[in-house]
């Protein structure tokens, strides 16, 4: 054995070098994937203060870097097709003394920072006043909230969506979500769709006015 190793020292050294290089490449690949995973953006959309439409809608940045919130898209379903409305494009009168980001649905969110967007009922009414004036809130069956932003680490669109089913219970309109957490939107196709929605909303000159309380 030792004689064979001595006679084939060059071959053994070459094989060992290739094997070492392969191990380092694999290690660096795993390290890079772990590093990217740690920097991956994550936006939470949660409900606070109950299960009814009067509950508060909270958007939290769980990413390790700042996310600039660009828009909040509300999707309404009254039993027919979906109606989409960008609340960030709705003209609003911001109340003094309140966080302007919550009033305008835009602004930077540091890591761990959150925004109280108001009650779900207020969000629905603002969306209806702008995009569904003929809708009746008591006929609302499904409500979707999508938060769209830009992530400072890679300067690309990031988004998350959470869907709530609206049901009547003991005379109250309650929100129920099958999603334990907001779904992170990562596919290019869905991101292009959201960009198209933002462009369509921004170019719509018939956007209504929703007054802040």
Quick tags:
3-stranded antiparallel β-sheet, elongated, 5 helices
Question: If you had to describe this structure to a student in words, what would you say it looks like?
Answer:
The structure is a single chain. This protein is of the alpha+beta class and 213 residues long. The chain has two domains: 2-37; 41-211. Helix content is 33%, strand content 35%. It has five helices and twelve strands. Strands 3, 4, 6, 8, 9, 10 and 11 form a seven-stranded antiparallel sheet that branches. The chain is elongated, with a radius of gyration of 25 Å.
Counted by DSSP, the helix tally is 5
Main pleated sheet:
7 strands, antiparallel
Identify low-pLDDT runs.
205-213
Count of spatially separate domains? 2
- Radius of gyration (Å): 25 Å
Category from helices, strands and their pairing:
alpha+beta
Task: Kindly estimate the percentage of residues that lie in beta strands according to DSSP.
Answer: 35-45%
**How many extended strands?**
12
Query: What is the 3D form?
Result: elongated
The average pLDDT is: 80
Compute the separation of the termini in Å.
Answer: 86 Å
Estimate the helix proportion, in percent: 25-40%
Q: Sketch the topology as an H/E string, one letter per element.
A: HHEEEEEHEEHEEEEHE
Entry summary:
The chain has helices at residues 2-7, 9-39, 100-104, 120-131, 188-203, and strands at 43-48, 56-61, 67-77, 82-86, 91-93, 107-109, 114-119, 142-151, 156-169, 172-176, 183-185, 209-211.
């Amino acid at each position: 054995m030792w004689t064979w190793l001595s006679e084939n020292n060059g071959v053994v050294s070459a094989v060992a070098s290739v094997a070492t290089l392969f191990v380092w490449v694999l290690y660096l690949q795993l390290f890079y994937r772990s590093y990217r995973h740690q920097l991956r953006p994550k936006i939470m959309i949660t409900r606070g203060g109950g299960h009814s439409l009067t509950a508060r809608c909270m958007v939290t940045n769980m990413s390790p870097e700042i996310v600039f919130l660009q828009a909040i898209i509300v999707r309404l379903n009254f039993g027919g097709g979906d109606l989409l409305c960008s609340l960030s494009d709705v003209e609003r009168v911001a109340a003094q003394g309140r966080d302007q980001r919550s009033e305008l649905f835009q602004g930077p969110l540091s890591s761990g920072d959150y925004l109280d967007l108001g009650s779900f009922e207020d969000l629905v009414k603002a969306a209806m006043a702008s995009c569904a004036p003929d809708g009746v809130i008591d006929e609302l069956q499904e409500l979707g909230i999508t938060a769209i932003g830009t992530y400072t680490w890679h300067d690309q669109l990031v988004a998350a969506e959470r869907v709530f089913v609206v049901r009547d219970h003991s005379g109250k309109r309650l929100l129920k979500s099958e999603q334990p957490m907001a779904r992170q939107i990562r596919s290019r196709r869905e991101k292009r769709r959201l960009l198209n929605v933002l462009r369509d909303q921004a170019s719509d000159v018939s956007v209504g006015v929703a007054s802040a309380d």
